[in-house]
């Protein structure tokens, strides 16, 4: 079968693919990065794997949409997701296999993990094939997804990692030349713990040290620091679009409000495929995910 590569030939020279598990993950972990690259003229493709049907509902008027009631939260979060992508300027956004193909599995160990459409139980190569199709169309040079623990251990995040990495393997030369996993440097977590210690809405309240958290990466293992502080207003606008998941009193707004863009507008990554480009600072962190790539060849 001859592959139609004219699609990517008509796209901008730089093409970034992000693979996320639920609506809202895209903004929480990578919203500033997405907005930064859209603003800088790159083509950004977001692939989200589930509709988030099993999520909480922080908007009381919508509480009856819950999975155990009308079971309509997935459709509502699809709308939230579209609005959030609009706020970030991301027009190329897709649900893996189409909206509704894979269902939010719920937290690890719950009965919902066994739902016949739960993403956690998806056939890996079948799910990866949907992503390979997108890679062949877009031919992204860079891909962002989660580490093997899904950043914090949620089954859909772990499965998103597995599907993204398998698709990159199957896509061969149409797959990404550089692959990054979302990460949070331990130094930033320590600063956050200090900054939040007097705060009412404190995400660090249940731990004594940052090493007790299910995530955190030694600074020397971080490869890239993307400064999107000029875009954190768009990131917070996109977060507000996800109102069922991110309540107005969320600590995430505290980070943006009291601590400015440094915490919300800067996002960090480890590099697991490809060569690190030129970097800055004590650990030579890249400031551009496309650093070191020969873009002419693709
Ligand atoms: C950020 C993220 O991945 N959120 C997921 C997660 O949400 C958690 C879940 O509702 C849990 O019950 C809460 O205690 C926790 O505060 C939430 O972050 O899991 C949901 C169910 O799979 C998912 O819909 C949501 O997007
Ligand atoms: Zn998620």
From TrEMBL:
<dbReference type="InterPro" id="IPR024078">
    <property type="entry name" value="LmbE-like_dom_sf"/>
</dbReference>
<dbReference type="GO" id="GO:0035595">
    <property type="term" value="F:N-acetylglucosaminylinositol deacetylase activity"/>
</dbReference>
<comment type="function">
    <text>Catalyzes the deacetylation of 1D-myo-inositol 2-acetamido-2-deoxy-alpha-D-glucopyranoside (GlcNAc-Ins) in the mycothiol biosynthesis pathway.</text>
</comment>
<feature type="binding site">
    <location>
        <position position="22"/>
    </location>
    <ligand>
        <name>Zn(2+)</name>
    </ligand>
</feature>
<dbReference type="GO" id="GO:0010125">
    <property type="term" value="P:mycothiol biosynthetic process"/>
</dbReference>
<keyword id="KW-0378">Hydrolase</keyword>
<dbReference type="GO" id="GO:0008270">
    <property type="term" value="F:zinc ion binding"/>
</dbReference>
<dbReference type="Pfam" id="PF02585">
    <property type="entry name" value="PIG-L"/>
</dbReference>
<dbReference type="InterPro" id="IPR003737">
    <property type="entry name" value="GlcNAc_PI_deacetylase-related"/>
</dbReference>
<keyword id="KW-0479">Metal-binding</keyword>
<protein>
    <recommendedName>
        <fullName>1D-myo-inositol 2-acetamido-2-deoxy-alpha-D-glucopyranoside deacetylase</fullName>
        <ecNumber>3.5.1.103</ecNumber>
    </recommendedName>
</protein>
<keyword id="KW-0862">Zinc</keyword>
<comment type="similarity">
    <text>Belongs to the MshB deacetylase family.</text>
</comment>
<feature type="binding site">
    <location>
        <position position="157"/>
    </location>
    <ligand>
        <name>Zn(2+)</name>
    </ligand>
</feature>
<feature type="binding site">
    <location>
        <position position="25"/>
    </location>
    <ligand>
        <name>Zn(2+)</name>
    </ligand>
</feature>
<dbReference type="InterPro" id="IPR017810">
    <property type="entry name" value="Mycothiol_biosynthesis_MshB"/>
</dbReference>
